[in-house]
Design a protein that fits this description.
globular, CD59, binds 2-acetamido-2-deoxy-beta-D-glucopyranose, 16% helix, alpha+beta, 46% strand
Length: 220
């Protein structure tokens, strides 16, 4: 009896110790979501695998409407990108965001700057599409890239809206900073969390007319 119970007790103690240890190791972050350039919420203990606090401030333009939203949450540090990202996923569907990642309790309490938008067309184009409930989309319509968007992205996976999880696919223009995002990453945007299964980036092709004119200019 003793011989069989002891190892089990040992295992139980070890499991308990590990659980307590990982709880003690857990990070706490401010968690909130609101419209406007900042938000305020309570400090919450992160799930053990989430070892970073993040703040995302996004400015999105849909048609003529411009809105600013902020979210603060816990995420995996390896999935977290600190900096500016700009995407254009369709005509009149443009978003810029600033993100900040950190790894100390409550370190995302402060404010970060609202991203600066640059909606100047830069002459590049990418295939664009947006689809829900499926993980591919054809991108047969081109979209014009703006600012420093030099990459064509093709992202797909699962979007978690809080209530439901559904498949999504999207293609369009992005800054090269968007290409830091890896397959498998769970990325909180201002409104939803995206779990990426595909994260392709290719440089936007040079517009043919312009390239010809340029190379003609270089001929001595
Ligand atoms: C905005 O984007 C255009 C086109 O790429 C670029 O020429 C310009 O320098 C950018 N402006 C700023 C302030 O970055």
């Amino acid at each position: 009896m003793m011989m069989t119970r002891r190892p089990q007790l040992g295992l139980l103690t070890l499991t308990l110790l590990c659980t307590l240890f990982s709880l003690a190791q857990s990070l706490s972050c401010e968690v909130c979501k609101d419209s406007g350039p900042s938000c305020a919420g309570k400090l919450k203990l992160c799930e053990p695998e989430k070892d970073a606090c993040v703040t995302v401030v996004g400015l999105s333009t849909t048609g003529n409407r411009v809105s600013v939203d902020t979210s603060k949450s816990c995420m995996k540090y390896k999935d977290c990108y600190s900096g500016f990202i700009s995407t254009t996923l369709g005509h009149g569907d443009h978003m810029v965001s600033n993100s900040f990642c950190c790894q100390e309790d409550g370190c995302n309490k402060g404010r970060i700057p609202t991203p600066e938008d640059n909606s100047t067309l830069n002459g590049l184009r990418c295939p664009s599409c947006k689809a829900a409930f499926q993980e591919t989309c054809s991108g047969d319509q081109a979209v014009q890239c703006v600012g420093h968007e030099t990459q064509c992205i093709y992202f797909s996976g699962i979007v978690q809206t809080g209530i439901i999880n559904t498949r999504f696919a999207t293609r369009g223009c992005a800054t090269s900073s968007a290409c830091h995002i890896q397959v498998g990453a769970r990325v909180p945007s201002v409104t939803y969390t995206y779990e990426l299964r595909r994260a392709d980036c290719v440089p936007a092709p040079r517009p043919p007319g312009r390239a010809e004119r340029r190379s003609a200019g270089w001929v001595p």
